[in-house]
Amino acid sequence: MARKEPAAEAANAGRLKQIALTYKMTSKADPKIGPLLASVFIIIFGVLLGIGFLIGHPVYLGILGLLLGFLATAIVFGRRAERAAFGQMEGQPGAAAAVLDNISRGWTTTPAVAMNRSQDVVHRAVGKAGIVLVAEGNPNRVKSLLAAEKKKMNRIVADVPVHDVIVGNGEGQVPLKKLRTTLLKFPRVLTGPQVTATNDRLRALGDLMSNMPLPKGPMPKGMRMPRGGPKAR
């Protein structure tokens, strides 16, 4: 018991420190977060406490107001913090991959499965909805990357649906803050074992490509690269 108590105290201290850090980062992007949270708590607590006095149970309603006030404040804080985080990430390279990594259980994310010299990139997520290819970068350039990767997926796992998403704020694109919701809205058509089998096939392909023997030394004169050249990974 003596050993568990310091561990629990350290964990609680870590959570409080993380909450304080999150609040500090959120307040930089959203200066009104403090007054907003205070208003939410005071209004909920005050309304329930007032009702408690009217019906003759101020203690019970006061405790309920306290709990509901904290709960509502936590919900509002979480949403504003998430919005602030998306605002800071938007437009940054790899932002879509960061969102995919935190989407939920049941999804396996592989960042940067395709990339070009302009740093337009395609990430891959595999879940019960199938394969979702998520591109970020110039909308005109990423279309060719998506088409090539989608063709490869259809060739390797033809029995698995393949979706494609372009992250951005233009027409036909998905804003970064809605990426998670968009993926979760895709219909679930695969079972757990099918998702595992799909990941295994894709992983085996990656291992095969990474372990492919390459000729040592300089390339022989007169030897030409295959038409289209290798794609950057």
Automatic annotation (TrEMBL):
The chain crosses the membrane at residues 33-53, 59-78. Residues 219-233 have a biased composition (Low complexity). InterPro entries: DUF4191 (IPR025445). Pfam families: DUF4191. This is DUF4191 domain-containing protein. Keywords: Membrane, Transmembrane, Transmembrane helix. It comes from the Bacteria. It comes from Streptomyces anandii. Residues 210-233 are annotated as: Disordered.
